[in-house]
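Supplementary Methods, section 5.1.

A reviewer requested that the exact input to the structure prediction be made available. We therefore reproduce it here, unchanged from the version used in the analyses.
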Amino acid sequence: MKNAAIINCLGYAGLIPFWAAAWAMLGDRTLFQLSPALIFLTYSAIILSFLGGTLWGKARELADGFLSAGLLLLSNVLALSAWLMLLLGETFMVPGLLIALIGYAILCAVEWVSTSQVLGGVGEPYLRFRLTLTSVVCLAHAVVIYAVL
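The structure derived from this sequence is encoded token-by-token as follows.
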């Protein structure tokens, strides 16, 4: 896979804001004089929207058909879900985080099920990498939901 080292570094580094905000919430701290809940919520929305956008690019590479149309629709559903999370804000943070958690899980499942068409058969190491990232992100969401409740 091209740029595997960069992809791995960026993927794992992308977990830092999730866990920094979760840690701050559990410790009742602020981050950069901002609410860690707001930091977590906005970062999650950005990442969910970004990952949804990757599906748009993959759909454009595929021939017209059910899978291509499904990826286009899912990419938009994920982006709109991220926007909904932001609209719900900190006031309704738990429903917003549950929306994100479900979105991340669906995205990971779609990648696993359609790897040969969507990811160009990147192989099991990349899929394990994505599953690890998704699991850690979903766990961070669960921690933040616990901290909010």
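The two ends are 42 Å apart (CA to CA). These observations are discussed further in the main text.
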